[in-house]
Amino acid sequence: MTGQTLKTEKELICRPIGYIRTPFASAGETPKAGVVKPEVEGCIELFAEYAEAAASMKVGKRYVVLFWFHEAKGYAQTVHWRGYGALMGLFSTRSPHRPNPIGLSTITVTGIEPPKAEQADEPMRIWFTGVDMIDGTPVLDIKSTDVNEENRQP
User: Can you tell me the distance from the alpha carbon of 145 to that of 97, in angstroms, rounded to the nearest whole number?
Assistant: First the structure.
């Protein structure tokens, strides 16, 4: 590190790899954490072009989903914890209202439905519990929670 402050004005571009389907139509009815309603199941409709990237995902395994809080508008640098608690710095909370409204949730896969060969543009469906997103949420990435995964040979 050179001790210089880095400040760039570069724009970052993210494109969804799919969308999340849930029974929650609004932020008000959505649990603030996936453990609040563990019985609720959601589905990631992963674009068919990424099906190969999900080929090694397994039912029963946990994954981190990175997504875009697409309905969040604006942000404040201090917010009330969980919307009603003590005032805290934004980066010490899980508020959806952020400079870059990226969310992350840990899910458990309950089912995997690959795209049908005869319907090449149909999405792959990944069913999961740990739902704390609203219906239609864009998915940015999916990552394994297994820290040893990268060191393991197939």
Answer: 25
Q: What is the pLDDT of residues 6-53, one digit of tens each?
A: 677 778 889 999 999 998 877 776 656 555 566 789 999 999 999 999
Q: How far is CA 38 from the centre of its chain?
A: 16
Which residues make beta-bridge pairs with 44?
A: 20, 126
Q: How far apart are CA 132 and CA 24, in angstroms?
A: 9
Per residue in 83-139, pLDDT (tens digit) is: 667 898 988 887 888 888 999 999 999 999 987 777 778 899 999 998 888 999 999
> Domains of the chain, with CATH numbers?
18-145 (2.40.30.70)
126 Cβ neighbours under 8 A, 6+ residues apart: 43, 44, 46, 54, 57, 109, 111, 112, 113, 142
3-state secondary structure 8-59: CCCCCCCCCCEEEECCCCCHHHCCCCCCCCCCCEEEEEECHHHCHHHCCCCC
Phi, psi of 64 (to 5 degrees): -100, 130
* Residue 152 one-letter amino acid: R
